[in-house]
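Entry type: protein chain
Record version: 2
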Amino acid sequence: MKHFIVEATYLVPFEAVAPLIPSHRNFLKDGYDRGLFLCSGPKEPPVGGFLVARAETREDLETLFEAEPFRQNGVARFTFTEFRPVMRQDWCEPWFTGEPA
């Protein structure tokens, strides 16, 4: 598995993003349930957000995000940056070294 920082940047004021948050969180829950996401949250101030994710390939992750509600509604853009995690807390070791979900 490869590891990524996914950055969301809102393209509209937060007030236009807020109504989509429940569907966005449902999308995230599916990724968490599948073992693909480690943590996520909004930037402060709320102009976007960050997500730590894993996938077999960047293309797989980008394809997954085609169904993301913020993207589908044109209120955010996403960047996908692959990184190689060489140090981490022991408690999250299984997520980084485990088999695909």
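Comment: The chain has a mean pLDDT of 95.
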